[in-house]
Amino acid sequence: MVAIRPGSPLTGSVTVDGSKNAALPLLAAAAALHRPVHLGNVPANADVETMLALLQQAGWHTARPVSDLQTAVILPGDKPEAGPDRDIAARIRASYYLVPALLGAYGRARLPWPGGCQIGERGMEQHFKVYERFGDRTIVDDRGYVVEAASIPRAGTVSITLPFRSRGATIAALLRAVVAGRPLRLGMPNLSPEVLAVVEALRAAGWQCRMGEVLLALAPPLSVPPESIVWWVPGDKIEAGTLACAVAVTGGDVRICGVRGDDVVPLVRALRWLGVPADAEDDVLTVRGRDTRPTSRSLRAIASLAPSGLDADFEPSLMALALTRPGTHLFSDTINPGRHGNLLPQLARLGADIHELSPTKCRLTGPQQLTGAGVEATDIRTGSALLIAGLTAHGVTTLGGLDQLRRGHADLPTKLYALGADICEVTP
């Protein structure tokens, strides 16, 4: 566990890791191409290491060059393997991204139900409907599911319209089209930075793509794809947002490097609404907490899948920040219906007074004074929010459940310490 207590304002400069939420589908996309891929800026968090292990178990070769440990090399295997270990695959949600690659290599994918953070139902109905449109067959049971490729390959354009902008189903459709070598017309696509990273990667591999809010069209390469494929994982916008909120609560000044400005626009908008000067330009997010002028304006942090909407993973960190700001603030996350059930009880241990309007919606009035106590990172983003809260709580806050936190961040406490946070690891 780590112990954290209030201290000096955070100052300096820090560089975020590559995005876990982008790295995982990019690794699966590399496997789906069934060609050598060099993927740069790969984070060393636990979920990424699990995905690399699953690829190896399924017959792909993976390596991190000694000269650049942030690069992962993914090579097709030369012999069939038994497939991913179901117990290991159950540790992460992103195991479902491997279905297209497994169908392409073996004609069959057998996986457990998605694991990862316990923040609500992990329904896969839209994934299965995507595969059905390609002619695949799905069988489900209590332990997981099996997807079997069509016995007679089909040709022609596959047209699908999603009922909502599902990130997972959008990536499933893209990767299944790649494996099938078929054009795709996808209505109501998710256009989050993580999906756009996959689209950019496929373009680099020769695939043609046109996209807008209503329709995404993907077509196979017109010519032989390049021999050497090099991709890059974008910087972690959620880690950047967590650090930005931590800087804001301490009244510090920090440059957060390595994150694309477009990826944090909704976060910057929320920070400015609360009176925190913040700017995102090129690959730097700047937060000037010392110049904060509390506005008493009420923040409405509504998680959304819409283009330019607030990513649900920003919400917990913003909630920890809002506890220190005047106003009556509303938070809503219907995308992850179990997240508030994790986060709110932990903040309550620190003395936070948050009114739960429904399982997915809550309201709080700030500023509130928190008191240090023992809390638990029950999921990745709850752990991040509790680190921020600990920076303002009187006394010492001890945070357990670091294994959860490290699933998404290689070492977030170390980054906070480098900026001047009073934080250290302790033995229970």
Topology of helices and strands:
Blueprint: E1 2-5, E2 11-15, H1 20-33, E3 37-40, H2 46-57, E4 61-63, E5 72-75, H3 86-89, H4 99-106, E6 108-112, H5 125-133, E7 137-140, E8 144-148, E9 158-161, H6 167-180, E10 184-187, H7 193-204, E11 208-211, E12 215-219, E13 229-232, H8 237-250, E14 253-257, H9 265-273, E15 278-281, E16 284-288, E17 300-302, H10 315-322, E18 327-332, H11 339-349, E19 354-358, E20 361-366, E21 374-376, H12 380-390, E22 397-400, H13 402-408, H14 412-418, E23 422-425
Parallel strand pairs: 2-14, 3-13, 9-10, 17-18, 21-22
Antiparallel strand pairs: 1-22, 1-23, 3-5, 4-5, 6-8, 7-8, 10-12, 11-12, 14-16, 15-16, 18-20, 19-20
**Radius of gyration in whole Å, from Cα?**
22 Å
- Structural class of the secondary structure composition? alpha+beta
Strand percentage lies at 15-25%
Shape: globular
Give the total of beta strands: 23
Oligomer: single chain
Low-confidence stretches: none
